[in-house]
Design goal:
By secondary structure, this protein is an alpha+beta fold. Helices cover 28% and strands 22% of the residues. The chain is built from 5 helices and 15 strands.
Length: 290
């Protein structure tokens, strides 16, 4: 654990409860897992009640912004128009668009079309009737972060693209079913990878989910090609994203050198991604943004 603390001391999580009445039992389970060689989270990755409530508030804005996109997105729009909708809606609701100027990223959202796996940069590109597009929204509210994304299939998108998006959406629940306190996070990726392969698809290995809440990107990295009973221990209070990137063809991807942000499929076949932000609870999970 991060430091020694007595049972009668106040808990390290700043709950103003005694340690024995707060995180003592959880820490015992963490220590036992560590003795077994399992990677365990530091206390900094376990959010307290106040932090969770603030992250939930951020998540409510993230959901509202994606709801607005769901209402307005259509063929003929440019991805810059999507960016404007997201910036204006987030601002009106009191939030800040987390991607804007993050490590030099120039826009308020990521819009990834067809063979763009993730981090597509909004531009004057027009959304076509046959496109599928991922809109990835991240919000800061009072210094707390949220993150989620949705796929949108345009009215004349081919059936194979629609099926890919639907399997990706279903894979989120497959992953959520593996979110259990004191299980290992690799179980999520193992279940999603198996589900995708069963449908004839591949899963991107290079990019995955991540811890979130106090920062935009935190530990742990959440792989979607992982093995069962591997990875960090999931502990109540941890918050991370489940966001598999599932490809119609090969899993191989590359970074577009024209902008050093957008990741694309090597074979130029489509990719789909859905993302939820999830809290590990005492008896399972709670979705904080979708």
């Amino acid at each position: 654990m991060d430091k020694f603390i007595k049972e009668e001391d106040f808990c390290w999580c700043n709950s103003n409860k005694k340690y024995k009445d707060c995180h003592f039992e959880i820490d015992k389970k963490i220590k036992l897992a560590k003795l077994k060689g399992i990677k365990v989270p530091s206390h900094s990755l376990i959010k307290n009640e106040f932090q969770i409530s603030k992250i939930k508030d951020s998540g409510k804005i993230n959901i509202a912004v994606l709801d607005k996109v769901t209402e307005l997105i259509k063929p003929g729009m440019t991805t810059n128009e999507i960016d404007k909708i997201i910036y204006e809606t987030t601002t009106q609701l009191g939030g800040i668009c987390a991607p804007l100027n993050y490590e030099g990223y120039p826009k308020s959202v990521c819009t990834s079309i067809n063979d763009e796996v993730c981090h597509g940069i909004p531009s004057n590109r027009i959304i076509k009737e046959t496109d599928i597009i991922n809109v990835d929204v991240s919000t800061i509210l009072d210094g707390y972060f949220s993150d989620s994304s949705r796929m949108f299939c345009m009215p004349k998108a081919e059936d194979y693209k629609i099926s890919l998006s639907e399997v990706c959406r279903q894979s989120i629940q497959i992953g959520l079913d593996e979110v259990k306190p004191f299980a290992q996070i690799g179980n999520i990726g193992a279940a999603i990878h198996e589900f995708a392969k069963k449908h004839g698809y591949s899963v991107v290995a290079e990019v995955g989910g991540h811890g979130v809440g106090l920062q935009f990107h935190e530990d742990p990295f959440v792989s979607f090609v992982s093995k069962r009973n591997t990875g960090m221990l999931m502990v109540p209070g941890m918050i991370f994203t489940i966001e598999p990137m599932i490809n119609f063809g090969r899993p191989d991807v590359y970074l577009d050198s024209s902008n050093n942000w957008t990741i694309k499929t090597y074979d130029q076949k489509p990719s789909a991604q859905w993302e939820v932000m999830v809290l590990v609870t005492d008896d399972g999970y709670e979705i904080l943004a979708y």
